[in-house]
């Protein structure tokens, strides 16, 4: 989320005092000013926040303080903290196999009445892994979830079943998968298969 709040905080020492100015240089080159405060326990420091979009174009934040004494002598000290930026969403693909009911692609009344079993299967690719959730939206609007499994030959996929009566009120089944990486980037992919 490019507008997520990011706290920037630290401590100061030496002759720094409450209300001295701390200048923070953000990843995008912009500057943010804050004041020294009493953190308690005899410690002085600062704390402010910015938004994550201000960090995307860089890899560090620099905090700088300048203290000038009564005689006009100045000292400037700075400290930088590095971070990494990951805005790349996971690579992902899903393919739902054709819907087969009773040997064809048509749900008839007898199959619906008998609640004939219908296999819903397909493959996933990219960064999908075993145990990820696939959500299937059936013809009647209900949802069915299943997990990604190893299909063999290096292929991952899914397979579950429903009954033909769950397909009567529609003409397609949709399979969807969402992945979120450790940095919080998310990708959703879906595929639909039609029937009559």
Q: Proportion of β residues? A: over 45%
Q: What letter string, H or E per element, gives the SSE order? A: EEEEEEEEHEEEEEEE
* Classification by helices and strands: mainly beta
Overall 3D form: rod-shaped
What number is the mean pLDDT?
A: 93
Helical residue percent band: under 10%
Strands, total number: 15
Largest sheet, in brief, is: 4 strands, antiparallel
Distance between the termini: 41 Å
Radius of gyration based on Cα positions? 29 Å
The unreliable regions are: none
The helix tally amounts to 1
Oligomer: single chain
Plain-language structure description:
This protein has one helix at residues 109-113, and strands at 5-12, 21-25, 31-35, 37-40, 43-51, 60-68, 74-82, 92-96, 117-126, 133-137, 143-147, 149-152, 155-163, 172-180, 186-194. It is built from one helix and 15 strands. By secondary structure, it is an all-beta fold. The mean pLDDT is 93. The strands form four sheets. The protein has a four-stranded antiparallel beta sheet with strand order 3-2-6-7, with no helix packed on it. Helix content is 3%, strand content 54%.
């Amino acid at each position: 989320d490019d507008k997520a709040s990011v706290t920037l905080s630290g401590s100061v020492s030496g002759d720094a005092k409450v209300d001295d100015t701390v200048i923070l240089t953000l990843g995008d080159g912009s500057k943010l000013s804050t004041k020294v405060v009493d953190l308690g326990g005899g410690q002085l420091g600062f704390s402010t926040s910015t938004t994550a979009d201000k960090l995307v174009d860089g890899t560090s934040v620099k905090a700088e303080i300048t203290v000038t004494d009564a005689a006009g002598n100045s000292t400037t000290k700075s400290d930088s903290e590095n971070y990494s930026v990951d805005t790349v969403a996971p690579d992902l693909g899903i393919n739902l196999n054709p819907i087969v009911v009773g040997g064809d692609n048509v749900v008839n009344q007898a199959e619906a009445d008998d609640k004939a079993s219908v296999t819903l299967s397909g493959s996933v690719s990219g960064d999908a892994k075993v145990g990820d959730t696939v959500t299937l939206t059936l013809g009647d609007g209900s949802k069915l979830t299943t997990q990604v499994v190893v299909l063999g030959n290096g292929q991952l996929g899914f397979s579950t079943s429903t009954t033909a009566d769950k397909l009567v009120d529609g003409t397609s089944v949709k399979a969807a998968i969402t992945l979120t990486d450790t940095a919080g980037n998310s990708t959703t992919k879906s595929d639909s298969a039609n029937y009559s």
